[in-house]
Amino acid sequence: MTDETIVLEGRPVVDGYIEAEAIVTDETISGWGGVDPEHGTIIEMRHDLHGESFTDKVLVFRGAKGSSGWSSVFHTTRLADTAPAAMIYEETTTKVALGAVVTRVPAVTDLDEDPTEIIDSGDLVAVDGDEGIVTITKRAGSGDGDVPE
Amino acid sequence: MELDPDERAMLNGEEGPAKQVAMDLLIRYAEALDADRLISTDNVAGVPGAVNEFLENYYGGESTSHDEIFSRYDLDSDRVVDVPDTEAGATRLQGKVEPKHWDELGTDQKNAELDRISEEFAADHDVEVLKTCTPYHAGNLPSYGEHCAWMESSAVVFINSVLGARTNVEGRESTSAAMLTGKIPDWGLHRDENRYGTHRIEVDVPVDDIMNWGMLGYFVGKHIQEDIPVLIGDYGSPSRVEHKHFGASAATSGGIELYHVVGETPEAETEASAFGPNEPEDVYRYDKEARREVYDELNAVGDDRDIDFVMLGCPHYSIEQVREASRLLEGNELDEDVELWLFASRKVRDQAEQEGHADVIRAAGGKMMTDTCSSMSQAVPPETDVVALDSAKQVHYLPAIMDVEAWFGSTEDVIDAAISGSWDGERP
Asked: Going from the N-terminus, what domains does chain A have, and what CATH number goes with each?
């Protein structure tokens, strides 16, 4: 099976270029009380990523919610070496914008399609935070709503 | 981005290195938001220089200066700068440490000491140390239309919606930079066009206490997420405390930063003025069934009815709430297996001491605390398995943070549970 590649264009938020595996949620993420920054995991009960780690992955999510400690939590993941490799989000808020800035990982938003619908967990994603371009290589079997093992 | 001459001077270092790195951070942040400019503010609420053991160790242990932590963490700067006094009016919000009962909350001496040093650092830089999530119960009441830069989602939604002040939900780094520069990105809720309602909420059941306003807020946040709800219907005239619980919940289940209550809040004299040029994107109805769903969701992690702990004061209690707790506890004693902690600002606590309510609460076996709460300090009494809470926000957070079961109900429900030792809240 040949790998399918999709390119999305958006607005650069934080500079830098990285390629990594995606972890995707179409839900918003609560920072303080929703993320354990020393382990880089989602701890919010009933969240569809509950218990999963975003460390060194491209975190694709709808946006930020909850406490104003959002930026501090992600800032702390940078210090604890548990930060995501990059951030791609759909909805801009002060929480997620400041969080992306202080996490200092490549970040892109305002893509021409909703990234949480196009990207599946397990896809290989290249994030160009200078140009605002996201290149997705679908992992075989990751489309059609299949959840990769 | 356009910069005013004073902003450019700061960025160029003409006002010293601290303002230079603060301005650099604000510009990176404004660009991430796609903002065109900055705006002046003289009312900033944050946690400047707050430090815990993790941060201190990360930045080099005990020899680390507070300026280093403030520079590298608060201002996200790669160089260490001398930190001047705050330029803008500034408030220090709540923290993780209880100043008198820290030992009982399981805080070690090291972190208690670090918290005291952080507080001194703030005070030394002319920051008002209110140490509360409710500055508006402790003397900081922004005026209508005032541009602010506040952290603490429950306080942000309160001052936007109830007072008509203007702030986005800021973070630690943006508020610390705003304190030094008196600037914040002119984006989001600072701008007229972004303050109109987007969704209509029809309230079809009576909503008349903090439990019900909390549930309604949880419903609204869950459905509306980051947009601006306009409430219309059967809600009577909410008190400031009811507004506080509504907003805190709506900012927890979603990201509500501003709401309008037609006929009640200052930017919603009429439904038409609340929506302005917007057509409602959607309409949600809050009826008995919706209320029951929210109640069940908030009580989903309650199973054992044998209560160990009651926490009051999320957000920090007002003096009216302390008075009510004291009235409910007067002449009673807590069940021998239950602890009750009540959190308020230092100012409200001092008033409660002067008015005698604190003595009544202590006589029943409760404890008066300040500065933090169970979720913030990650503290419940030893052996706590089941808690009872009158705050939808706290019941959302605490079970995940402390791995406990939790019940949600009215203030009366939870105080009754503290006295009897068992949960008897009624499902609406």
From this structure: 5-137 (3.50.30.10)
